[in-house]
Every structure is written in structure tokens, then in C-alpha cells.
Amino acid sequence: MTKFSIRKSTFDKFIERLGIDKEEVLKTLDVEVVKVGSGYRYVIEMESFFFFVMEKLYAASRPRTVSDEDFEIVLKEWVSKLAGFSGYANLAEVRDVVVQELGMSQEEFSEKLAALVQRKRGEYLLVEGGDRKVLVGTRKYGLIKRVKKIEA
């Protein structure tokens, strides 16, 4: 996991130019604040930052509404493709590809996933493990698994 650091003032100007809420970015990317000399620097995971900025730019250029059915189809596909031997997939990786494929925001992804998990209780397991976390509802999760229900 590659990280980079950037002066707080430079980062603030960049985020302002993108028209994004700074607090949203800091919370979403789980940014570390480090005191260096008389100033502050943000330490950010590079891949998360890249996908976040690309998603914002892409969503701004192509706003569209994603149906719950389309969301579930694409989510199932990518959970299956990215799942390891245990059946769990890294939720941040799943989010990144689903967001890119459907042209939706990360916030919309989190909202739709929370609604889907509530609507389809027992079909999806969210686990707090993993290196990168995704906010779903009020909790952060790192892994997702699709459980096939067995009819009795």
C-alpha cells in the first residue's frame, strides 16, 4: 500500500478546485494528519485517493441514476470475480470497480449497499477485516461475501 504526503494548504486548494467537501474527503480516505515543522501534512493512501478523485470527476461528467437491480447484478458479478478462496472479496476493491462501471458516487454505492443488505438479509456478509474500509451505514467494513441461501 503506497502512501504519499502533501501539504495541508496545497491539498485544501486542490479539493476546493474540485468542488468537493473537504471533510467528506478526509473521512472517506481516512487521512492521517502529521505535524512537520511549523505546518501540517496529510498522509494519504495513493490508490484510494486516485480512485476517489477519478470517481468524482467521472460522476461529475456523467450523472446517472442506477437502479437497485442494476446495482445488485454488477455487485454480484464483482464480488464473485474478486473473491478469494474463502469467498470474501475486498470491499474497497469491489466498490472501486462497481462505482467505475456504473458511474455512481462512493456515497451512492454505500447507500445502495446498505439498503441491499437490509433488503436481502442473510445473502451478504460484511466483515470489518481488511486493510481498506468502506463506510456502510454507520460502520466501516473491509470484506464482503455473498452467501447462497439453501432452501429448507
Helix percent band: 40-55%
- Overall structural domain count: 2
Coarse morphology: globular
Would you give the CATH topology of the largest domain?
Answer: Arc Repressor Mutant, subunit A
What is the β-strand count? 8
The second-level CATH architecture of the largest domain is Orthogonal Bundle
Low-confidence stretches: none
Kindly estimate the percentage of residues that lie in beta strands according to DSSP: 15-25%
Major sheet size, sense and barrel closure: 3 strands, antiparallel
Q: What is the averaged pLDDT score?
A: 85
Helices and strands, in N-to-C order?
A: EHHEEHHEHHEEEE
How many DSSP H or I helices?
6
Q: What strand order characterises the main sheet?
A: 1-3-2
What value does the Rg take, in angstroms?
17 Å
Structural class based on helices, strands and sheet pairing? alpha+beta
Query: What is the distance, rounded to the nearest whole angstrom, between the alpha carbons of the first and last residues?
Result: 44 Å
- CATH class of the largest domain reads Mainly Alpha
